[in-house]
Amino acid sequence: MKKIIKQMKVLAIAFLIALGLSACSNKASAENTPPPTSSAAPDDSMINKESEKPLENLVPDSGEVFSLTEEEQALYDEFRENKDMNLFKDVNPISIAKVNIMFGVNGEWESEYAMFYKEDGMETSLEEYKQMYEKREKESAPGEVQSYANWYFPFIDEGEFKADGNNGVIIFHQVPVEGEEDDEVNFHMVKDANGIWWVRENPLYWEAE
Predict the structure, then answer these.
(1) Calpha distance 144→172 (Å, rounded)
(2) What are the Cα distances from residue 161, in Å, to 137, 143, 156?
(3) pTM of the prediction?
(4) Nearest to 110 by CA among 98, 120, 100
(5) pLDDT tens-digit map of 82-124
(6) Helix 93-105 vs helix 70-82: angle between axes, to the nearest 10 degrees?
(7) Phi, psi dihedral angles at 207 (to 5 degrees)
(8) In this structure, how many other beta carbons lie within 10 angstroms of the beta carbon of residue 137?
(9) Greatest CA span in the chain, whole angstroms?
(10) Contact call for residues 145 and 104 (beta carbons, < 8 A)
């Protein structure tokens, strides 16, 4: 089991970086990443057209589901249409983070990117972000991104938001893995001059101070 978990380390980090969830950081060792398991035989929609090999969702069921509230879904729908961050004025930072994560889950990469704070020298360009998603779509099985979100983010509503000036972090726990220590996850944000919280793009496994 330990060997399988270690093998998942590189896959999980690479996948989540491509997913664009780079605002979150995992405080514990990546050995805590849930081990892979087999899934049911894929249908025709899960066939990789390049290799003709079936794409299987190897992420095990966490038993939890990451989802939005009705209010958050309304914010999601409106932001997808206008890409205007003023929509999030006076909105709870945890809800802002959830909307951003759900854009990543649903492959809405332009909307996800639009929520990243860029005033302090964000390194990833819009074109580079697009390329990440195109690569992910070719290499991921249907439902795989949601499965990862179900491991990492179902308890974000129970998290604590801490602000230090214009910098903020949501501290919460991912779904625990049997036999392993519980993982603490940190989702970093930045407040602009108008008091709106944006998502900070930074290294995935950044240790929070």
Answers:
(1) 22
(2) 32, 29, 10
(3) 0.73
(4) 100
(5) 999 999 999 999 999 999 999 999 989 899 999 999 887 667 7
(6) 70
(7) -65, 125
(8) 12
(9) 52
(10) yes
How far separated are the first and last CA of the chain, in Å rounded?
31
Closest CA to 97 of 115, 78, 120, 118: 115
Q: What is the pLDDT of residues 121-163, one digit of tens each?
A: 667 788 888 888 888 878 888 888 899 899 999 999 999 999 9
- pLDDT band with cut points at 50, 70 and 90 for residue 25: low
Please report the sign of the dihedral spanned by the C-alpha atoms of residue 177, residue 98, residue 208, residue 109: positive
Please report how many Cα atoms fall inside a 13 Å half-sphere around the Cα of residue 125, on the Cβ side.
3
Tracing tokens 């009705």 back to the chain, one arrives at: 70
> Within 10 Å of residue 11's Cβ, how many Cβ atoms?
13
3-state secondary structure the chain: CHHHHHHHHHHHHHHHHHHCCCCEEECCCHHHCCCCCCCCCCCHHHECCCCCCECCCCCCCCCCCCCCCHHHHHHHHHHHHHCCHHHHCCCCHHHHHHHHHHHHHCCCHHHHHHCECCCCCCCCCHHHHHHHHHHHHHHCCCCHHHHHHHHHCCCHHHCEEEEECCEEEEEEECCCCCCCCCCEEEEEEEECCCCCEEECCCCCCCCCC
Residues in the chain: 209
